[in-house]
Write a structure and sequence with these properties.
Layout: E1 4-6, E2 9-11, E3 20-24, E4 28-29, E5 39-40, H1 45-59, E6 63-66, H2 76-86, E7 90-91, E8 93-94, H3 104-107, H4 111-124, E9 135-141, H5 148-164, E10 168-172, H6 178-187, E11 195-197, H7 206-214, E12 218-221, H8 232-244, E13 251-253, H9 273-284, H10 289-305
Parallel strand pairs: 3-6, 6-7, 8-9, 9-10, 10-11, 11-12, 12-13
Antiparallel strand pairs: 1-2, 4-5
């Protein structure tokens, strides 16, 4: 099984004995005129570090998959500092978010040029620090079908994944468009088990979730605690439906902290809401500890490494 690429070096999956957060942001900048709070910058790094250190101590948090990519204010040097200071390994990402956040480099580039950009980052590293990304994501689209530029960036992500062996995590805006994303990515030869379709807990449609899982993709319930988008009660119902349909091995969980107001220091639910609130509710609904371990540790490791079920214990 492949090692996991983290911002501080390779990590054996066997060394990850605690839970992972499968979709988070530790350093990003998505500020636009209408939304000036979508930022986690230098002023917030200490608070982020403290939260991760506490979760490592209290819940054994063993890995964070950080899905801030090109055009989202990615800062791999900050990620390396946070990982070292908190004691929690962090996976960095490459790719392009959905169209409203595409940088100018996307505009005039064809698919091959875009794929080449990703392959270079994956093989040579990001920035002067030469940090090697460990995942392609969160590559995005909005609506039921990707826009023309999003088709190019998603296709480039798939081709880079096929060329390098990395897996792909998507951003499906408000949960929509997952089946179209999966069809596009797999059409490029990327196996479905190396694809995670994002934000499905924002889509109240268990049929779509089962369809994605049956085709072999991971289904991300990754905005846990974002009650302004969807209640955790609905998330719990949707996740239980997926588990009851026999797809516990296809779900990933996280909180997608994406603005400083979500931090505990600022009164938000923080990165630990999954452990403090949602998992206790999941257990109270009858889900056993082995399934919780599958959802929070084994599934993320399998996704990142492209492993099959029996290869991660």
């Amino acid at each position: 099984m492949y090692d996991i690429r983290t911002v501080t070096g390779p990590l054996s999956p066997a060394a990850v004995r605690g839970p992972a957060l499968a979709h988070e942001h530790l350093a990003l900048d998505l500020r636009r005129d209408a939304d000036r709070a979508a930022v986690l910058g230098a002023a917030h790094a200490d608070a982020v570090t403290r939260e991760l250190a506490v979760l490592h101590e209290e819940y054994g948090l063993a890995l964070v998959v950080e899905l801030t990519c090109r055009g989202m204010g990615r800062d791999v040097a900050a990620l390396a500092r946070i990982a070292k200071d908190s004691g929690v390994p962090v996976v960095a990402a490459t790719g392009w978010y959905y169209e409203p956040f595409h940088p100018s480099e996307v505009g005039g580039a064809d698919v091959e040029e875009l794929a080449g950009t990703l392959v270079r980052e994956i093989t040579e590293g990001i920035g002067p620090e030469r940090v090697l990304p460990g995942v392609i994501g969160e590559v995005g689209s909005h609506g039921d079908r990707p826009s023309v530029p999003e088709v190019r960036t998603l296709t480039a992500a798939a081709r880079a994944a096929v060329a390098t062996g990395l897996s792909v995590a998507t951003h499906a805006q408000l949960g929509r468009g997952g089946p179209a994303q999966l069809a596009l990515l797999t059409a490029e030869g990327l196996p479905a088990h190396r694809i995670c379709v994002g934000h499905q807990d924002l889509l109240d449609d268990p049929v779509v979730h089962r369809e994605l899982a049956e085709r072999g993709a991971y289904v991300a319930f990754d905005t846990v605690g974002k009650e302004s988008y969807q209640s955790d009660t609905t998330r719990l119902r949707l996740l239980l439906a997926l588990l009851e349909a026999g797809h516990a091995d296809r779900a990933l969980l996280s909180c997608d902290v994406s603005r400083h107001g979500y931090l505990r220091d600022e009164g938000g639910q923080g990165y630990g809401h999954l452990f403090r609130s949602f998992l206790p509710r999941l257990r109270a609904a009858g889900v056993d500890d082995d399934t919780v371990d599958l959802l929070t540790r084994r599934n993320p490791l399998r996704f990142l490494t492209g492993a099959r079920t029996e290869e991660v214990t």
